[in-house]
Design a protein that fits this description.
225 residues, alpha/beta, six-stranded parallel β-sheet, 48% helix, globular
């Protein structure tokens, strides 16, 4: 590291970023859509339409807000079908090597995901990469919301554990919400096109957009103060 430079901390998203699970997500989403008689979406249609909070995504498709009962059924179906397909998903190409290299270079990194915390931790452990991270946090509380407040709590925990601050951190994710959450705490963001959003949707966030995780890490390195 060049003298006088600050080490950059990476906050990785999980689903659609480190985990290449977009096809499992589409399968589960289409199962949920069938519950309210919606036609299935292609990958391209999903990426063009997807947004958070998730009920707003469903509203775009239904033309109205889902009822509380519909939301509960759709959310349950989505997670049930996703869990069945997730076991067949692998890490995104190059992810394992990038994580190992970043740690070997003396940098820190963590995961913040909107996947339920009680599921996320054993899943990350199962892929054999848990040791690369100083912290792994999943969503606590109801599903379907934004990542911003979770990002706040993530950085509060990181600050207690060491000298990691948002201004020296880069969030790498696949959703506009990752950029929103990063801006909420004062961190930078790089968005990856391999997950839930189309490139045009990601560009609207006003942050760099890349087509590989390698590009995302290389860009994050240039942000060092």
């Amino acid at each position: 590291m060049t003298p006088g430079k600050t080490r950059t901390h990476l906050v990785w998203d999980w689903n659609g970023t480190l985990l290449d699970d977009i096809h499992a997500v589409i399968h589960a989403a289409n199962a949920a859509f069938a519950e309210v008689d919606l036609a299935p979406l292609t990958l391209e249609q999903y990426r063009e339409t997807y947004c958070v909070p998730i009920p707003r995504f469903y509203e775009r498709l239904l033309g109205r807000q889902p009822t509380a009962a519909e939301w509960e059924r759709m959310d349950d179906i989505f997670h049930r079908y996703y869990a069945e397909r997730r076991v067949g998903c692998g890490l995104t190409a190059g992810a394992e090597e990038l994580l190992a290299q970043w740690k070997l270079a003396g940098h820190s990194q963590s995961i913040l995901s909107m996947y339920g915390h009680e599921h996320l931790v054993p899943v990350v452990r199962g892929y054999g990469i848990e040791s690369h991270f100083v912290r792994v946090d999943g969503r606590t509380g109801p599903s379907g919301g934004s990542k911003a407040l979770h990002m706040e709590r993530h950085f509060e925990a990181l600050a207690r554990a060491g000298e990691i601050s948002p201004e020296n951190s880069v969030v790498i994710g696949d959703a506009v919400d990752d950029a929103v959450a990063a801006a909420h705490v004062g961190a930078r963001a790089v968005l990856y096109t391999g997950g839930s959003h189309s490139r045009s949707s990601l560009l609207a966030a006003g942050v760099p957009v890349v087509d590989s995780l390698g590009e995302a890490v290389a860009l994050a390195e240039t942000f060092s103060a």
